UniProtKB/TrEMBL annotation:
<protein>
    <submittedName>
        <fullName>SDR family oxidoreductase</fullName>
    </submittedName>
</protein>
<keyword id="KW-0560">Oxidoreductase</keyword>
<dbReference type="InterPro" id="IPR036291">
    <property type="entry name" value="NAD(P)-bd_dom_sf"/>
</dbReference>
<dbReference type="InterPro" id="IPR020904">
    <property type="entry name" value="Sc_DH/Rdtase_CS"/>
</dbReference>
<dbReference type="InterPro" id="IPR002347">
    <property type="entry name" value="SDR_fam"/>
</dbReference>
<dbReference type="Pfam" id="PF13561">
    <property type="entry name" value="adh_short_C2"/>
</dbReference>
<comment type="similarity">
    <text>Belongs to the short-chain dehydrogenases/reductases (SDR) family.</text>
</comment>
<dbReference type="GO" id="GO:0016616">
    <property type="term" value="F:oxidoreductase activity, acting on the CH-OH group of donors, NAD or NADP as acceptor"/>
</dbReference>
């Protein structure tokens, strides 16, 4: 029990990669969950010896219990879960099909619920832990053309508060980070093709710039630490002031 054990979903790129690296650099053994074998294994090789690849598609909800059980059997405890994996879909509202909506919700919300439930079972056995959910500015204010993504991230913030209240008696803390606009491939894809949207991002961000993946990793690391032992049920915007910008 000397070394903390973490699971970071979507940990082979972007915010998840930065978070996994932050954990591993500080001696936390981190299971990096990703769908693509090559990308996930390469990411873990770059991160270092404390990173362990887990090739898994979180949309296969029925297989999540076995995946969590396997990690728990190896380690005997799971101390930290970062629910970072997610997808986006940019479409006009009327063009979003039921299948489109369901795909985003399944990845961004159902899988978060399922893996959290299974990890909580283990955390209750070993005396507690920290769950860190990743939200978005799409849950802080209205963003056009991302209806399914907005719905999923708003749900994540509600789940965070409900989980925090129910799980506090078991020593399990649940918090949420709401990233602003961060320099990742996913953000670049969304903004570079839409100059008007990109200009709006900068104009309403008081700090006048985009954040770095490491900014999110630093916040996740704080939530994971014992120094945050009296912090639960919070949603922390890490956004350069975007959510309160005029």
């Amino acid at each position: 029990m000397d070394k903390k054990i973490a699971i970071v979903t979507g940990g082979n790129s972007g915010l998840g990669y930065a978070t996994a690296k932050k954990f591993c650099d500080n001696g936390i053994k981190t299971y990096v969950v990703g769908r693509t074998r090559e990308r996930t294994e390469n990411a873990c090789a770059e991160i270092g010896e404390h990173a362990v690849p887990v090739i898994f598609d979180l949309t296969h909800l029925e297989q999540i219990p076995a995946m969590v059980n396997e990690i728990f059997k190896k380690e005997g405890h799971i101390d930290i879960l970062v629910n970072n994996a997610g997808i986006n879909m940019k479409k006009d509202f009327v063009d979003v099909t039921d299948a489109d909506f369901e795909e985003v919700i399944r990845t961004n919300m159902f899988s978060v619920f399922s893996i959290s439930r299974e990890v909580v079972k283990k955390m209750k056995e070993t005396g507690g832990g920290s769950i860190i959910n990743i939200s978005s500015m799409a849950a802080q204010y209205g963003l056009p053309k991302v209806i399914a993504y907005s719905a999923s991230k708003t749900a994540i913030e509600g789940m965070t508060r409900a989980m925090a209240v129910e799980l506090a008696p078991f020593g399990i803390r649940v918090n949420c980070i709401a990233p602003g606009f961060i320099k990742t491939k996913m953000t670049a894809k969304a903004l570079d093709s839409d100059p008007e949207r990109k200009n709006k991002v900068y104009s309403r961000t008081p700090m006048g710039k985009m954040g770095l993946p490491e900014d999110i990793a630093d916040a996740a690391y704080f939530y994971a630490l014992d120094e945050a032992k009296f912090v639960t049920g919070t949603v922390l915007p890490v956004d350069g002031g975007n959510s309160i910008g005029f």
